[in-house]
């Protein structure tokens, strides 16, 4: 097909005529229910977070936010579906360190590009982890653990929620930075991992403070450090792993809301504003704290930069992490 100068001029004119209608449609957004894809099964922490945010923004948006659980492949199944959806603001995605950093860094054939195929809307929250140990481990600090692990390579095991999980990633980074050789034992979820940790069948695990602290308070586990850059407000007496000898160590789970590529800027701005307001809501803050998470918020650009830096950071560990 040959495009003449006249027909090209007509195309430009048509686009100019349509632009005001597109802008008005964005101004009226949303005009129907919004689907929020959560890439994990109902009942877990990701699902709880997605429903909390959806519930909080329904009233100001004037439309229902319907959570659609699409579990599989550490978040990649849901991410693929979201990436292929229209970029009109009616399909959103609850992304995180798995779907938008770890999986793409480890698997180049993941089926989507975490930056090119998505529109970042807002960085929701961070969830630091704690390093827990069975009482039989002859170490009460991170420094003592590193010393023991180096003298006994391969003797200590660490449990995780599964291959490619945040708990595995935390231990892989620890092994790499400390020069230790603790052995990974993947489980199908947190519950079976906790059973074996409490029984002493595995000695160590990185997990959320919410999952670990009840057993610590009951004297069944001990906590050696936290994975955040600063001490957790809920555990002020527990040192960070960084201050215990691994300078620069910082990891954990993080979550954010994204949409497919090509979303209109006014729609992104509206969603960003409403979710920022939700994160400032005392009830939302309290709910996040209950799950060991800290609200972040901010601009889409801030979240986009975080995703870029996380993918780059995690690529250096890709050879040590299996997703299956």
UniProtKB/TrEMBL annotation:
Record keyword Signal present: yes
Residues in the signal sequence: 1-25
Gene3D superfamilies hit by this protein: Bordetella uptake gene, domain 1, Periplasmic binding protein-like II
UniProt superkingdom: Bacteria
InterPro entries linked to this entry: BUG, Bug_dom1
PANTHER family (UniProt xref): BLR1237 PROTEIN, TRICARBOXYLATE-BINDING PROTEIN
Entry's family note: Belongs to the UPF0065 (bug) family.
Protein name as catalogued: Tripartite tricarboxylate transporter substrate binding protein
Organism: Ramlibacter agri
């Amino acid at each position: 097909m040959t495009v003449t100068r006249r027909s090209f001029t007509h195309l430009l004119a048509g686009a100019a005529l349509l632009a005001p209608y597109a802008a008005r449609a964005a101004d009226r957004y949303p005009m129907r229910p919004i689907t929020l894809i959560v890439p994990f099964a109902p009942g877990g922490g990701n699902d709880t977070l997605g429903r909390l945010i959806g519930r909080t923004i329904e009233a100001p948006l004037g439309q229902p936010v319907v959570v659609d659980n699409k579990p599989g492949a550490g978040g990649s199944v849901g991410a693929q579906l979201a990436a292929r959806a229209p970029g009109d603001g009616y399909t959103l995605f609850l992304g995180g360190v798995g779907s938008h950093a770890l999986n793409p860094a480890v698997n180049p054939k993941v089926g989507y590009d975490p930056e090119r195929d998505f529109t970042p809307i807002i960085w929701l929250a961070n969830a630091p982890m704690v390093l827990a140990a069975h009482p039989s481990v002859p170490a009460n600090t991170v420094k003592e653990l590193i010393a023991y692990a180096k003298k006994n390579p391969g003797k200590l095991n660490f449990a995780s929620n599964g291959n490619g999980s945040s708990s595995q990633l935390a231990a892989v980074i620890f092994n790499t930075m400390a020069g230790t050789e603790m052995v990974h034992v993947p489980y199908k979820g947190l519950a079976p991992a906790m059973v074996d940790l409490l029984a002493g069948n595995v000695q160590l695990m990185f997990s959320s403070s919410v999952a670990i602290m009840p057993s610590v308070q009951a004297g069944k586990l001990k906590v050696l450090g936290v994975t955040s850059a600063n001490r957790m407000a809920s555990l002020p007496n527990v040192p960070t792993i960084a201050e215990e000898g691994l300078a620069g160590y910082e990891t954990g789970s993080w979550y954010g809301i994204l949409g497919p590529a090509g979303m209109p800027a006014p729609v992104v701005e509206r969603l960003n504003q409403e979710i920022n307001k939700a994160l400032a809501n005392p009830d939302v803050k309290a709910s996040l704290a209950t799950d060991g998470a800290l609200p972040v918020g901010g601009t889409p650009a801030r979240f986009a930069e975080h995703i870029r830096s996380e993918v780059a950071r995690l690529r250096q560990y890709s050879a040590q992490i299996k997703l299956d």
